[in-house]
Design goal:
By secondary structure, the chain is mainly α. The chain has 15 helices and no strands. Helix 1 packs across helix 4 and helix 8 packs parallel to helix 11. This is Voltage-dependent anion channel.
Length: 361
């Protein structure tokens, strides 16, 4: 009864905010990134903040569930109105964003399963529904890659392609969290390697565009979603760690690959920010809202969560230096996550008071 009252109260608060401040228009295709960004904080970094974890964990998880419901309701409404294909599925690049629906549902379902005992059965239902959604999304990805190759859409690709890996690995993490040892190792292994194959395909296309083409500029052509270059492998590492389906030396290699690309991508991001400030000024350059910015929060949070779950001592090829890096990430990452979440929240409520959840500025 106590949870029911809390849910109703929070739902009414969110509903009033939505009615008063947000327009009733379809959610952006990548709106699931909002759930991904907030959810990975709840499932990872928040566990090392006792005040939030012990006092507000259930409230924040319930709030996450309500946000997921609102965004899902928008997609369901589009399906009922038969506009879902035109809005979300038609474009060969944009429709990769449907992967945020899968990953967002996985992250939300895990949070619900771990913190809201009254909804454990519902979390299991979420898993099976999400598995069907992932199968549909995989079919969309296959169609999209066909379009990229047949229509020569190479100049349009960016990090959004990597959501194919993120969504696939999220199923592994979700399944192992919900079912534990009952989730088949063969399924985990197969999905992990499928996700890696999808990563390699997307990685080649993205590197081909950004490192071997001059048809773009850093300040306008580099997208927020490119941070998934390291984020997609972070969730691959997490899936490997929680399932135990992959050799730990390979998991160590994945972790080192992530650290390398984290440094490369964030160095590019700093250069991009400098160029954008010089070109547009601080406000228009780096202090505007876009739904894809939540993907950066997710990738930061996923690196932290993977590092937290990764038992480095199980790898045979390790050193004190690597342990010090792991400890540094865990010590500093918590508060970095808090700061970027607060920053993104402020941007959202500055730029989105007359708009709907997930609409980019």
């Amino acid at each position: 009864m106590q949870f029911t009252l809390m849910f109703i109260l929070l739902f009414l608060i969110f509903f009033i905010i939505k009615i008063l401040l947000l327009k009733s228009t379809p959610s952006e295709t990548a709106a699931g990134a909002i759930v991904m960004g907030c959810g990975i904080f709840i499932n990872g970094a928040m566990k090392n903040i006792p005040l939030l974890e012990n006092k507000a964990g259930k409230i924040l998880t319930t709030s996450l569930l309500i946000i997921w419901i609102f965004i899902a309701a928008s997609f369901i409404e589009s399906a009922i109105k038969k506009t879902i294909n035109e809005i979300h599925f038609k474009d060969a690049i944009k429709s990769f964003g449907v992967g945020t629906w899968v990953a967002g549902t996985s992250v939300c379902g895990i949070a619900v399963f771990q913190r809201i005992h009254e909804l454990v059965t519902f979390a299991r239902v979420m898993f099976w529904g999400n598995l069907a959604l992932w199968a549909l999304y995989l079919a969309i990805c296959i169609r999209n890659y066909g379009a990229i190759f047949s229509q020569g859409l190479y100049s349009k690709v960016h990090g959004i392609l990597l959501l194919s890996t993120v969504s696939t690995q999220s199923i592994v993490v979700f399944g192992n969290t919900i079912f534990g040892d009952k989730f088949p190792k063969l399924v985990s292994t197969s999905l992990i390697y499928l996700g890696i194959a999808l990563y390699i395909l997307a990685f080649i296309l993205i590197i081909r565009k950004y490192f071997f083409s001059k048809e773009w500029n850093l300040e306008d052509g580099w997208t927020n979603t490119n941070c998934i270059l390291h984020g997609a492998m972070s969730i691959t590492g997490l899936a490997s760690a929680v399932s135990g389906a992959i050799n730990y030396n390979l998991v160590l290699f994945i972790w080192l690959w992530i650290l390398l690309w984290f440094i490369i991508v964030e160095f590019i991001e700093i250069l991009r920010a400098i160029k954008r400030v010089n070109k547009y000024g601080f406000i228009k350059g780096v202090a505007v809202y876009n739904v894809t910015q939540w993907s950066r929060i997710f990738t930061f949070g996923m690196l932290y969560t993977f590092t937290m779950k990764f038992n480095l001592s199980l790898a045979t090829l390790t050193s004190k230096f690597l342990f010090s890096i792991q400890n540094f990430i865990l010590r500093s990452g918590t508060w970095i996550m808090v700061l970027i979440l607060l920053y993104e929240g402020v941007l959202y409520f500055i730029y989105q008071p007359k708009n709907r959840l997930g609409k980019s500025a």
